[in-house]
């Protein structure tokens, strides 16, 4: 029963996320509302860690595989990208690296400074 | 052949798992960034579809049970985050500043490059939400008048780039702190990057998950402002 209960709780939160997506006027998907709901639940003690833990570990472990269909679907948008391929490719590569470097360096600087205080 | 696959309930899901499994095996054998499991899996699926002459839409339809699990799995990212709550509490200033500067870097560098490449408004706003999770990014692109399917493609490519090169970039730029690495990966390459962060360590994974949520929300606000800069 443990797994059924855990999966049930996770699906209930997914559903609540969907409800918020419909009710609220922001372009924020159900998954993000769901993270916030589950996190608040754990934090306030309304959801105990043991009531989601194993199923959650399983879902996170198989999560990488879930991106395969979406990424394989890239081929279908080839026609739309073809014309502007060079700018799209250059911008995608450069900005991704830039964001990683800047945010990483800023956090590292801050963490080390706070530790010394 | 295609007809058989069309009626099979399990082929698309199995093909996805098998391809990803082969990807993980190859990565174990040759530890090069090029042998990224997701990249390998995608190439194998595309090759299989081409060789067996199965239509891409047949595969996509059959793979729907996988996509169904994506939202519940995303929600579960709250669990490692909760387990690392102490770290978040003790470093919240550094973490929030880092995510904010990451979002700003993303929007500003896209603006700058789009300006240099003389992109029109629609192409520019298509790219603006490229570093955040697909579901939010598509919503932002649609609202600002971008090409939604291109946004989805660019977001996935961004994730794969982040996933492949995170270790190398962090090494070159001396980013060794696990909190900093996690935030950097999540802010630049959302959930697909987070998969790599989870591999690097529990702290990296938890911080990357947090970074997806916060940078996603900040980008919703920031992209609306940046959209006005190219008309």
Descriptors for this entry?
heterodimer; A: 117 residues; mainly alpha; extended; B: mainly alpha; 14 helices; 81% helix; 0% strand; globular
The dominant shape of chain B is globular
* Helical run tally of chain A: 6
The biggest beta sheet of chain B is recorded as: none
Please state roughly what percent of the residues of chain B sit in beta strands, choosing from under 5%, 5-15%, 15-25%, 25-35%, 35-45% or over 45%.
Answer: under 5%
Describe the biggest sheet of chain A? none
Q: Radius of gyration of chain A from the CA trace?
A: 20 Å
Indicate the radius of gyration of chain B in whole angstroms. 19 Å
Query: Shape of chain A, please?
Result: extended
Helix-strand category of chain B = mainly alpha
H/E element order of chain A: HHHHHH
Structure, described:
The complex is a heterodimer of chains A (117) and B (231). With 117 residues, chain A is mostly helical. Chain A has a domain at 1-66. Chain A has 6 helices and no strands. Chain A has helices spanning 2-23, 30-44, 53-66, 68-72, 78-82, 85-116. Chain B is 81% helix and 0% strand. The longest helix of chain B has 25 residues, at 92-116. Chain B starts with a helix and ends in a 5-residue tail after the last helix. Chains A and B meet through helix 1, helix 2, helix 3, helix 4 and helix 6 of A and helix 2, helix 3, helix 4, helix 6 and helix 7 of B.
Itemize the secondary structure elements and their pairings.
The complex is a heterodimer of chains A (about 120) and B (about 230).
Chain A: H1 2-23, H2 30-44, H3 53-66, H4 68-72, H5 78-82, H6 85-116
Chain B: H1 2-7, H2 11-29, H3 37-52, H4 56-62, H5 64-68, H6 70-75, H7 78-83, H8 85-90, H9 92-116, H10 121-127, H11 134-144, H12 148-172, H13 178-200, H14 202-226
Helix pairs in contact in B: 2-3, 9-13, 9-14, 10-11, 11-12, 11-14, 12-13, 13-14
């Amino acid at each position: 029963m443990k797994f059924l209960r855990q999966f049930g709780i996770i699906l209930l939160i997914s559903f609540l996320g969907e409800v918020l997506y419909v009710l609220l006027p922001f372009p924020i998907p159900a998954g993000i509302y769901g993270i916030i709901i589950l996190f608040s639940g754990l934090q306030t003690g309304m959801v105990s860690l043991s009531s989601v833990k194993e199923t959650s570990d399983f879902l996170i472990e198989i999560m990488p595989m879930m991106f395969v269909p979406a990424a394989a679907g890239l081929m279908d948008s080839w026609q739309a990208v073809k014309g502007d391929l060079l700018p799209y490719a250059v911008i995608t590569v450069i900005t991704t690296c830039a964001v990683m470097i800047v945010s990483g360096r800023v956090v590292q600087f801050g963490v080390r400074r706070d530790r010394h205080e | 052949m295609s007809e058989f696959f069309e009626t099979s309930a399990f082929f698309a899901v199995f093909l996805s798992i098998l391809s990803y499994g082969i990807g993980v095996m190859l990565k174990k054998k040759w530890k090069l960034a090029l042998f990224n499991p997701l990249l390998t899996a995608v190439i194998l699926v595309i090759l299989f579809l081409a060789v067996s002459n199965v239509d891409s839409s047949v595969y996509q339809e059959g793979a729907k049970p996988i996509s169904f699990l994506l939202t519940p799995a995303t929600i579960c990212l709250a669990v490692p985050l909760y387990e690392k709550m102490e770290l978040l509490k003790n470093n919240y200033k550094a973490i929030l500043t880092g995510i904010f500067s990451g979002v700003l870097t993303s929007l500003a560098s896209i603006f700058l490059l789009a300006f240099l490449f003389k992109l029109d408004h629609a192409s520019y706003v298509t790219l603006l939400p490229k570093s955040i999770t697909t579901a939010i990014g598509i919503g932002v692109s649609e609202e600002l008048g971008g090409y939604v399917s291109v946004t989805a493609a660019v977001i996935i490519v961004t994730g794969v780039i982040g996933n492949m090169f995170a270790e190398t970039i962090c090494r070159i730029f001396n980013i060794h702190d696990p909190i900093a690495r996690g935030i950097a990966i999540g802010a630049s390459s959302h959930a697909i990057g987070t998969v790599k962060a989870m591999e690097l360590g529990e702290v990296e994974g938890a911080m990357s998950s947090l970074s997806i949520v916060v940078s996603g929300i900040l980008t919703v606000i920031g992209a609306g402002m940046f959209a006005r800069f190219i008309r």
